[in-house]
Specification:
Shape: globular
Number of domains: 1
Strand content: 15-25%
Number of helices: 3
CATH class: Alpha Beta
CATH architecture: Alpha-Beta Complex
Radius of gyration: 14 Å
Distance between the termini: 27 Å
Strand order of the largest sheet: 1-2-3-4-6-5
Structural class: alpha+beta
Largest sheet: 6 strands, antiparallel
Protein name: DUF1801 domain-containing protein
């Protein structure tokens, strides 16, 4: 695991650390070719420089965010923001459904919107895959 991400996870309280560690492990296993780093203060995984998935500690939960998640057609993912992102929020490590998460990660590789060039395109989002 990326040392910065490990440090981020270790800075959380025990239950949130367990959520973060499990998410990072499953994401790393399912996105072996992705680059990962702390981006805007949170762990994020990228394919070809495009953000795919990340998580962040919020006040009462850990939010897992898929940048293109609204296009996944997954009822458990909740739309987030005005672009194509969708999220799932965890309050306990027991809520992590590995089968769902692995399916979402597969879709994250297959369905991508071009966030990498969003600013260059003045807020216009185009689909890559």
């Amino acid at each position: 695991m990326n040392a910065e991400i490990s440090e981020y996870n270790n800075s959380q309280i025990a239950a949130d650390k367990e959520i973060c560690d499990q998410l990072a492990t499953i994401i790393n296993k399912n996105l072996p070719n992705a680059q990962n780093k702390i981006w805007h203060a949170h762990p994020v995984w990228f394919l070809g420089g495009n953000p795919i998935v990340g998580y962040s500690k919020l006040k009462n939960n850990v939010r897992l965010l898929f940048w293109s998640g609204q296009s996944f057609d997954e009822e458990n993912l909740i739309d987030e923001g005005s672009f194509k992102a969708a999220e799932f929020r965890y309050t306990s490590p027991t809520q992590i459904n590995k089968t769902d998460l692995e399916r979402w990660l597969k879709k994250a590789q297959e369905i991508q919107w071009d966030y990498k060039n969003l600013i260059k395109r003045k807020g216009i989002l185009i689909r890559l895959k």
